[in-house]
């Protein structure tokens, strides 16, 4: 094992900062939201990081998530937890997307989704800070990642999910040793239960952006993308947006990379993709609002982005606007068609949320929002294998004469 | 893209060779089995490979499967097909296995299984050799990989699977554009239908080891393992054995690496793991036979290794014996317990076939066949998410007063 994984070191974390007010909070203690109820962002001494780490040093390391250790908050090597967070591949989808459209296939991560990036970091920090019991609301994939990493560390977990969460997700969470409850409501209803228990001191609240370290794990999507593309960024990124941790994280990553002098000031246009049946960020974007109101009666086949209210709404909207991008909504039929086309024509099975990014790209292309010759990255946030596929087989009796012409 | 992926080159393939008689066959033409009905092996000019490629050159390349291009048969760059065949991670399972037990997690490959390694190569070669229509019998995962790569190349595919193949596999195959038939029989019954259609000239037969290139793709498991471990090999490998292509492929890879001078003569003990309900190789191994008879009434939860008869039986048995390993059978209860333990304690969800390797390792440890301080690699051949998990959730009414003590 390389020494950056085994050597203890002071992290380069200087402090945490309220994303709304800028108020400072100390590192190395447990935090949820800031005093004004907003997410905390982790800040680093980036000039010290730049002295400790070069792009050449990075290139010599294994390509997994922990190669970025100097830009991550874990202090002691013994608290690094891992299930093999590989660098996810960029897969061209020339037939269903276009010549310069790449899918970053996050379904290859542990537990089959990009939630592993956030949770590996949050659990490692929970371990470092002595947390023994964690609760979380989830639409499925985050709960699976939490359960897996916490099981590995011997941390107890309790997970609450909406009652219509796909059975495969619920069973995966339970198989990995978590106690899992189905709640008659949506993810924010589950979040309310977690918050109540946390207020009573029963567990630590791991809701999206309510603890500061998931975003640090998620930002590795941005770090990795820059490294994979030879220290430049694509023209546009289409990101399936529920809680938006990844979009916020990538935006933060790009700033950190620029501060290190590893990339320039050029940024991709960030497209926050939501489903028409649950599009609070799109509504706020179009209305010019800084915050997004709760979306009532949320419904979409893309359960992972069925998030009626996001605590980081203003951070998502800010990043999208600064980037020159947009928030876009796509309907379920377009999502399902995109999934079908990509599998059938490019051999790549997307999850519905990944399908939403392809559908949004197609819509943006039609609307002249992107050009066909621009380099675009779509995030497929989970393996398509977790989601129901249409039935499609016929039976053949081997004892009968087979009509080969008809096969 | 690096030039080893874009530059055309003569391959280093010199010829193909009958694995039974040693008779030579020309490269660059279509082949199924040799004249005596046995698999063909691809042979290379390894001294020329050694001049063209060094371990340092390899280290500078991206770590995916195509880094091994000089040891692979594809001639023209335009025929390289890819869905992101990443180097699969080695994941320690200290609690359910042991301190030096590593799981090579092949579920991270495209279509969620190690079948992608074989099929990416076989489909690329089919493209290179002008094949337009392919048929294959499958227990599920191979069909999914075939469908995906062939869809990407525009090659037509027809897949036959046993009637009780898991629904998720069948749907995945269909979603990726293949025509799929359920047959009232086992995989060799499906194979008979494919053989009949091939004899009538309706399609090219892609059955395990019946075309020569899947084994070349599968051998990258051995190449990759050596590179990941710093050009040495583990003490023992536990491999879930149905058709055995991977075991045969790794054994071939080790010889090629030794011929290149990149590893020494030390080999891992190879353990071919089968299920008690379908263990033809184990029976032949124990009886000292060179070939294995068909196993009647095959049944096991590990459908991927439910292969009653393997055309490469003698190659599997030869490798196992030369290595000083064994063929081992484990029962379904031990398989299911291993899957459960590994998920619950190490946070890693194995497929049943991967669970079989952990069960076999535990059995071998109890029997003194392996020592606890030996370095062991278990192959988890597919993502555990494709397989049914036990139901395990409770419901909670958010409108009622919640008894937090009881959660």
From TrEMBL, chains A, B:
Show where the Tryptophan synthase beta chain-like PALP domain sits: 81-381
InterPro entries per the record?
A: Ser/Thr_Dehydratase, Ser/Thr_deHydtase_PyrdxlP-BS, TrpB-like_PALP, TrpB-like_PALP_sf
User: Is the keyword Lyase in the record?
Assistant: yes
Q: Which SUPFAM superfamilies match?
A: Tryptophan synthase beta subunit-like PLP-dependent enzymes (SSF53686)
**Keywords (A to Z) from UniProt:** Lyase, Pyridoxal phosphate
User: Where exactly are the transmembrane stretches of this chain?
Assistant: none
Question: In its keyword annotation, does this UniProt entry include Hydrolase?
Answer: no
List cofactor names only: pyridoxal 5'-phosphate
Q: What is this protein called?
A: Threonine synthase
Species source reads Sphingomonas hankookensis
């Amino acid at each position: 094992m390389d020494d950056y994984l085994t050597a203890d070191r002071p992290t380069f974390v200087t402090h945490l900062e309220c994303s709304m007010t800028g108020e400072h909070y100390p590192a190395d203690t447990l935090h949820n939201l800031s005093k004004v109820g907003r997410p905390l962002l982790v800040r680093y001494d980036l000039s010290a990081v730049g002295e400790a780490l070069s792009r050449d040093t990075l290139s010599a390391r294994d390509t997994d998530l922990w190669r970025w250790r100097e830009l991550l908050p874990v202090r002691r090597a013994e608290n690094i937890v891992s299930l093999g967070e590989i660098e996810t591949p960029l897969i061209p989808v020339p037939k269903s997307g276009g010549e310069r459209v790449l899918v970053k296939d996050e379904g290859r991560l542990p537990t089959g989704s990009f939630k592993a990036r956030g949770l590996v970091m949050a659990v490692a920090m929970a371990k470092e800070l002595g947390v023994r019991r964690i609760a979380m609301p989830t639409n499925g994939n985050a709960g699976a990642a939490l359960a897996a990493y916490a099981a590995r560390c011997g941390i107890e977990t309790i997970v609450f999910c909406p009652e219509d969460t796909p059975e495969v997700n619920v069973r995966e969470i339970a198989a990995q040793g978590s106690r899992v409850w189905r709640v008659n409501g949506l993810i924010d209803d589950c979040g309310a239960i977690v918050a109540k228990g946390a207020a009573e001191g029963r567990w630590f609240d791991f809701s999206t952006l309510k603890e500061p370290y998931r975003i640090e794990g998620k930002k590795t999507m941005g770090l990795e993308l820059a490294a994979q593309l030879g220290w430049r960024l694509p023209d546009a990124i289409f990101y399936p947006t529920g809680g938006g941790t990844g979009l916020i994280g990538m935006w933060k990553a790009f700033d950190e990379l620029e501060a290190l002098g590893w990339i320039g000031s050029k940024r991709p246009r960030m497209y926050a993709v939501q489903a028409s049946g649950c599009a609070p960020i799109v509504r706020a974007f179009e209305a010019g609002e800084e915050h997004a109101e709760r979306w009532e009666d949320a419904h979409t086949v893309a359960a992972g982005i069925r998030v009626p209210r996001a605590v980081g709404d203003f951070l998502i909207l800010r990043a999208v606007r600064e980037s020159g991008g947009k928030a876009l909504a796509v309907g379920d039929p377009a999502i399902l068609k995109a999934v079908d086309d990509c599998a059938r024509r490019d051999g790549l099975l997307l999850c519905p949320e990944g399908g939403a990014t392809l559908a949004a790209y197609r819509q943006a292309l039609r609307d002249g929002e992107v050009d066909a010759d621009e380099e675009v990255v779509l995030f497929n946030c989970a393996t398509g294998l977790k989601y129901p596929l249409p039935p499609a087989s016929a039976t053949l009796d081997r004892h009968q004469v087979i009509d080969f012409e008809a096969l």
